Amino acid sequence: MKSGMFKKVSDILGTRPSGKFSRRTKPTASGELFDFLSLIEKWEEIVGPKLSKVTVPLKNQKKVLTVLTNHSAYSQSLSFMEDTLRKKILKVFPELRGKLTRFNFIVSTEHFDKQRGDLLRRAQAGRSEVTEEKKNNELHPQSPQYKSLKADALEEFIDIEDEEVKERLVSLYIQNHFK
Q: Within this chain, do residues 18 and 73 fall inside the same structural domain, yes or no?
């Protein structure tokens, strides 16, 4: 067998001898390099924060940028903005001039639902800890303990005539004397 017939795994996967993944770049016709991962990183800057949460560039092949979207409505919105989108991309990546002629939009809710589910699980875990801590550190205005502390505070500040100042002092008194 010829030694040139088989590619090294590191050539296919883009790994370095150390085992770390490298950011493979391909030379453009003008000899400049383009790093597709940098397009993904700058995607929010290009399409804005709302659309970047539901869209992601997938590949740039044969002068066609394929964009993965969460819903067909986002695909349609982006298709209406193709010229603006192309201008913004070329402003950030001038080396793509002549290398990007059209867009292809693919809808895959499965990808975004999985990602959204992971984020929600993480958020729920963090939120339940915060909610539990808040419950332990807050008094409900209708609770007997709150009413008792408020009555004590009002008695303490009976001589203060300014209602706004009195209300703030009562609040501080309750916070200071709670647990």
A: yes
149 and 94 in a common domain: no
Query: Measured between alpha carbons, how far is residue 98 from residues 12, 103, 150 in Å?
Result: 27, 13, 72
Instruction: Tell me the per-residue pLDDT of 162-172, one tens digit each, with 9 for 90 and over.
Output: 989 888 898 88
**Sign of the CA dihedral 38, 42, 47, 50?**
positive
Host domain of residue 173? 139-179
Rg (CA), the chain: 29
- CA neighbor of 95 nearest in space, from 6, 27, 178, 41: 27
pLDDT, tens digit, 9 for 90 and up, residues 107-151: 887 776 676 566 557 666 655 555 566 566 677 788 888 889 899
Residue 9 has pLDDT above 50, yes or no: no
Q: 150 and 90: one domain?
A: no
**Count of structural domains within the chain:** 2
Confidence of residue 90 (pLDDT cuts 50, 70, 90): very high
Claim to verify: residue 26 and residue 81 sit in the same structural domain: yes
Q: Is residue 19 part of a domain?
A: yes
User: How far apart are alpha carbons 96 and 27 in whole angstroms?
Assistant: 11
